[in-house]
Amino acid sequence: MTDKNNSGEYESVIGLEVHAQLRTKTKIFCGCKVGYGAPPNTLTCPVCLGLPGALPVLNKKAVECAILMILAVGGEVQERSVFARKNYFYPDLPKGYQISQYDQPLGLGGCVGLEASDAHKAKAIRLKRIHLEEDAGKLLHSESGESFSRVDLNRCGVPLIEIVTEPEVLKPAEARRCMTRVRQILQYLDVSDADMEKGQLRCDANVSVRPVGASEFGVRTEVKNLNSFRFLEKALAFEIDRQTKLLKSGGMIEQCTMLWNEDRQTVEPMRTKEESEDYRYFPEPDLVALIVNDAWLKEMQAGLPELPDERKRRFIGQYHIHEADAGVLTDSRELGDYYEKVMCDFDDGKLAANWTLTELLRVLHEEKTGVASLRVKPPMLADLLGQIKSGRISGKIAKVVFGEMLKTGRPAAEIIEHKGLTQITDISKLRKVIEEVLAENDKNLRRYLSGRTGVFDYFVGQVMRKTKGMANPEAARKLLQEKLDELSS
Questions:
Q1: Are 390 and 457 in the same domain?
Q2: Which of 90, 165, 187, 238 has the most CB atoms within 10 Å of its CB?
Q3: Phi and psi based region of residue 75 (left: phi greater than 0; alpha: psi -120 to 50; beta: remaining)
Q4: Which contiguous run of DSSP H or E holds residue 312?
Q5: 414 and 434, same domain (yes or no)
Q6: Distance CA 404, CA 411 (A)
Q7: Do 266 and 396 have their domain in common?
Q8: Residue 449 phi/psi, 5° resolution?
Q9: Which of 268, 298, 328 is the last residue of a domain?
Q10: pLDDT tens digit sequence for 27-85
Q11: Which long-range contacts link 200-203 to residues 24+ away (Cβ below 8 Å)?
Q12: Residue 367: φ, ψ to 5°
């Protein structure tokens, strides 16, 4: 498969290393709180600062989060895994090494399944490994022209899993799909919030190009610390294009580590790429081997929640909704949860799906907020939908009521009663309105009677306008048709 930038002569090969912060209360090797936005260097202790004599103690919750992810992607949890010291110097790494896993990781194999869509084919991206490690700190670079940077070590020791794919991602868009899918699984498992804006999900991408049909990989570069799907796709497209142009001009690719500069829309060299031997890995002497016995593994397997694909299939069968609607509803765990809670108090899956995917998603998009912060809770939406289905209000009136519910948090029935929004279903009242509409539109009435029946919808619209949208649409159409038939005979 050839990337568009390659003019049919070169193809790209990409491998991803996804780092996800695990959802634990404390760090991986100490009791320091995991928190975002705390004052710099306030969530630290001798262990995560690597002070002499301080010994790490492994966080069991972090291990269980990692095991769930391995099982969810069909990987193999290793009975015995070993932590190692990855030695390198960087200002935000106070120990001078990172505790990670190297040649004996917790998880091997598995895959990330990408669903087919109008633009993409289905594909499974195989995984090499999933292992545990600790995060480093964070450098705070001055924006006022100062010649130095500050360091915040709050993030040191925060638990991570690193998910490493095989080098078989072929396009930037495919890399984005893979990363999106990983985030979805992490959130469904509730093992990571995976909030990219908070640095809880980051990606390093190894990329190379080679002549189409070649079996050997080209010289790769690594683009590091990509913390948005958009940056990932743009950075890879740029780097593939850069490498392709360089090879076509007779140049050579230098193996190195790159950073994406969003301001300049370019990748820039950071340092010459290290190989694994440059990190001088050796077993962490202060931690024993991690043993996952059969009993523990069975307990974790029993705790696996329903994953997106399973939930989508169930939604289609249980609620009788379209596959596309089920796909959107299950894309986000919190949106799927909301829909299911609505269906606990309502019996029309299609109507509930339509409202969730139109009105609810519109509000979430406009207000840039999440489902949890909405004033309209699932039972309240179920009640509103029940008012529509019973014929008490029309869909148009329901949107007005919904808007009021969002503002005030009041239930639908109370708003309908208070504002007098009950739908007009009284036959005598509707007949009177219809007679008035026909009397006021003699020209269009004559057109209808002469065979131009397309003006029927115009009359319906006039009835709805005259009743300020309060007429029951079905009843209005039925009575209007009866009256017109009477006049035609």
A1: no
A2: 165
A3: beta
A4: helix 308-319
A5: no
A6: 9
A7: no
A8: -65, -20
A9: 298
A10: 999 999 999 999 999 999 999 999 999 999 999 999 999 999 999 999 999 999 999 99
A11: 200/20, 200/21, 201/18, 201/19, 201/20, 201/21, 201/227, 202/18, 202/19, 202/226, 202/227, 203/16, 203/17, 203/18, 203/19, 203/179, 203/227, 203/232
A12: -90, -5
Residue whose pair of structure tokens reads 């959107």 in the numeric block = 328
Are residues 20 and 73 in contact, defined by beta-carbon separation less than 8 angstroms? Answer: no
Place of tokens 């390198």: 88
Percent of the chain with pLDDT over 70: 97
Domain match, 282 and 330 both: no
Residue at which a domain ends, from 419, 448, 479: 419
Per the structure, the count of domains in the chain is 3
> Are 431 and 400 members of one domain?
no
Residues 97 and 21 in one domain: yes
Q: Could you list the residue range(s) of the whole structural domain that residue 114 is in?
A: 4-298
Encoded tokens for 200: 């809880």
Q: What is the CA radius of gyration of the chain?
A: 30
Query: Residue 285: what pLDDT?
Result: 96
Q: What is the C-alpha separation between 155 and 136, in angstroms, rounded?
A: 6
Which token pair is 410? 């009041």
Model pTM score: 0.86
- CATH number for 431: 1.10.10.410
Q: Using one digit for the tens of pLDDT, what is the confidence trace for 331-383?
A: 999 999 999 999 999 999 999 999 999 999 999 999 988 999 999 999 999 99
End-to-end Cα spacing for the chain: 68
Nearest-CA neighbor of 424 among 457, 481, 464? 464
State whether 354 and 394 are in the same domain. Answer: yes
pLDDT at position 1: 41
The CB density around residue 122, as the number of other CB atoms within 10 Å, is: 9
Q: Which helix (H) or strand (E) holds 210?
A: strand 201-211
